[in-house]
Amino acid sequence: MALKLGDLSKVPPKQKVMLAVLICLVMGMAYFYNYYRPVAAQREALQAKLHELDGVIKMQSEIAKNLPSFKVEVRRLEEQLVLLLEQLPNSSEIPNLLKNISDLGKESGLEFIKFAPGSEVKKDFYAVIPVSISVSGDFHSFVLFADKVSHLPRIVNLSDMTFGSPKQGGENQVLVNIGCTATTYRFLEQAAQESPGAGKGKGK
């Protein structure tokens, strides 16, 4: 049965207060669940997004502030790359480079027992060419040979050096058999980098 307005006058004051409080609670809960909580969640999400964007803005501001120095560094690295590429011979220069290494050994007083280029291994933009070397001579001659190799215009690294038992040579020389690997590098043209063979070499 519907409550009439005139009946409210008959309700005791204490119950009127309780009824008013109950109505306020119901309205407050309806406001909280239907309006405040969704708006609060949306506001929290927007604040998180704003904080994220502030971080992005600060990071990009730092990048923009350091952009001139970044450009200088990029130019420096590009120049360094050009210099390094100049030290990588192409395929037509490899035979001359290997001959130069052999000639340097003979000029230094070494006798070549073995000079065997191995199979090249392709990397990203260059190929590694190992050369197995075995020479006979005194230690000073080998040091002289290594120094001359280090001053070649192309990159050549000597590694895996082994020294055999020394023996007496002429004119009070102590001769020793020395084995090592001379590793040089060849620049790969773009077509060679993209060929199936290049992928197989890289996998090795």
Structure description:
With 204 residues, this protein is of the alpha+beta class. It has helices at residues 13-86, 94-107, 139-150, 190-194, 196-203, and strands at residues 111-117, 121-122, 126-137, 156-163, 167-168, 174-187. Strands 1, 2, 3, 4, 5 and 6 form a 6-stranded antiparallel beta sheet that branches. Strand 2 (121-122) and strand 3 form a beta hairpin. The longest helix has 74 residues, at 13-86. The radius of gyration is 41 Å and the shape is rod-shaped. Residues 198-204 have low confidence and may be disordered.
Short structural description:
This protein is of the alpha+beta class. The protein has helices spanning 13-86, 94-107, 139-150, 190-194, 196-203; strands spanning 111-117, 121-122, 126-137, 156-163, 167-168, 174-187. Strands 1, 2, 3, 4, 5 and 6 form a six-stranded antiparallel sheet that branches.
SSE layout and pairings?
Layout: H1 13-86, H2 94-107, E1 111-117, E2 121-122, E3 126-137, H3 139-150, E4 156-163, E5 167-168, E6 174-187, H4 190-194, H5 196-203
Antiparallel strand pairs: 1-3, 2-3, 3-6, 4-6, 5-6
- Unreliable parts: 198-204
**Given the C-alpha coordinates, what overall shape results?**
rod-shaped
Number of helices: 5
SSE class: alpha+beta
**Quaternary structure:** single chain
The whole-number mean of residue pLDDT values reads 78
Largest β-sheet summary: 6 strands, antiparallel
Query: Roughly how many Å is the radius of gyration?
Result: 41 Å
Helix content: 55-70%
Q: Find the count of extended strands (DSSP E, 2+ residues).
A: 6
End-to-end CA span: 91 Å
Strand percentage lies at: 15-25%
Order of helices and strands: HHEEEHEEEHH
